[in-house]
């Protein structure tokens, strides 16, 4: 497929889950549909101004719609058992949302409130996801990353994700 110059270049990264330790983190919980409005607001806040802003659409409403689509199976069945929300004072501040795309778990979205980045939240959420998936019997977690998203790439690569040949 030919890409227009405006289209960011993406590639797939995979991590092997065998040996991923299950991480029990009492501050994380499973996302539900009741979280949609707050998760949408959080997603827009996190993605706004980053190389992946367009993934959240053009505002809170489209971010809510995107998360609703994720819950509804747009990227394969949503996997609540391996998806997590981090809260502070009862409000979501970061989330990792996982689906199963063609049999392989997909980290569809991970995002941290702009006020809470750099504290290890995304790293801990992804660890929790990997541990939960290993316990469910999966051996791989896949994701798509944008070449320009240096921050996300550094995070994923430090967690053992490697590029999958196209
Ligand atoms: C990418 C994102 C999820 C990271 O969330 P976070 O909670 O700040 O991440 P963490 O604090 O767990 O940081 C983990 C790693 O990210 C990288 N990182 C964090 N802040 C960084 C910065 N300012 N510059 C470069 N790398 C950075 C580092 O590798 C860091 O590792 P370290 O903990 O050893 O320093 C967050 O910035 C975000 O929501 N971005 C917008 C949405 C997005 O791009 N999602 C990914 C789409 S593929």
TrEMBL record:
A Pfam family matched in the record: Acetyltransf_1
All residue ranges annotated as the N-acetyltransferase domain in the record: 26-166
Alphabetic keyword roster: Acyltransferase, Transferase
PANTHER family: AMINOALKYLPHOSPHONATE N-ACETYLTRANSFERASE-RELATED-RELATED
Official protein name in the record: N-acetyltransferase domain-containing protein
């Amino acid at each position: 497929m030919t890409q227009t110059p405006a289209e960011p270049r993406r590639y797939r990264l995979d991590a092997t889950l065998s040996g991923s330790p299950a991480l029990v983190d009492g501050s994380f919980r499973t996302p539900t549909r009741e979280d949609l409005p707050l998760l949408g607001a959080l997603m827009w806040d996190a993605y706004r101004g980053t190389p992946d802003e367009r993934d959240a659409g053009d505002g809170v409403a489209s971010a809510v719609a995107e998360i609703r689509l994720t819950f509804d199976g747009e990227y394969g069945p949503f996997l609540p058992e391996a998806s997590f929300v981090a809260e502070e004072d009862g409000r979501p501040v970061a989330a990792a949302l996982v689906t199963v795309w063609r049999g392989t778990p997909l980290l569809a979205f991970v995002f941290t409130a702009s006020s809470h980045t750099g504290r290890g939240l995304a790293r801990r959420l992804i660890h929790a996801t990997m541990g939960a998936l290993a316990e469910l019997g999966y051996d791989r977690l896949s994701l798509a990353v944008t070449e320009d998203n240096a921050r996300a790439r550094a995070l994923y690569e430090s967690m053992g994700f490697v590029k999958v040949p196209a």
